[in-house]
Specification:
The chain is mainly alpha-helical. The protein has 7 helices and no strands.
Length: 187
């Protein structure tokens, strides 16, 4: 039964994560944390970190991670297939219609309306991650409760990414090394 539940959950994520990438985060969060309680919010943020360090789309990496955690290799395959099935079908259908009708004003207007929606989905996901990173919980606490080390690392990494255009994976690895130094090792 877990295989069917995994497949269906990630079919829904794959089907409704318009814009992909970070736009899928609220849907993944809803399925794996709120509905099925497969992960805690802290595990979810760890999943996002791992997804950023590995090649491939976030939703695909998340499905593989969750599937592996719940049901091993077969769970990973089932969840991953669930995640990609809607995309494969939808892209084939959309490609046909897009190339046939791409010059119509209606098509251009629909695409123009969808862009801000995707940006809002990304913003909500980003805000949730920032709140968890700074306060260690899903809600904003008081200034005294904020993890000042996390804020300083955030500002430094943001500055490095913007000023020096360093590869994000390099910044993640360096941050991990700094974290090990600050918090005293692994485990």
């Amino acid at each position: 039964m877990i295989y069917l539940t995994l497949y269906w959950s990630f079919v829904q994520i794959g089907l409704f994560s318009i814009g992909g990438g970070y736009a899928a985060l609220p849907l993944i969060q809803q399925q794996v944390i709120e509905i099925h309680k497969w992960l805690t919010f802290e595990e979810f943020t760890d999943l996002l970190t791992i997804s950023q360090m590995t090649p491939g789309p976030i939703a695909l990496n998340a499905s593989t991670f969750v599937g592996t955690k719940l049901a091993g290799l077969l769970g990973a395959v089932v969840a991953t297939l669930g995640c990609v099935t809607p995309s494969c079908i939808i892209v084939l259908i959309l490609a046909y219609f897009y190339y046939k009708y791409r010059e119509l004003n209606t098509v251009k207007k629909v695409l123009g309306v969808l862009r801000p929606v995707v940006v809002s989905l990304i913003g909500v996901a980003g805000a949730s991650i920032v709140i968890t990173a700074f306060w260690g919980q899903k809600t904003i606490g008081t200034f005294d409760q904020i993890n000042k080390t996390a804020v300083v690392l955030f500002v430094i990494c943001f500055a490095i990414l913007e000023k020096f255009k360093l590869n994000p994976v390099t910044v993640i690895i360096l941050s991990g090394i700094i974290g090990i130094g600050i918090y005293g090792g692994i485990m």
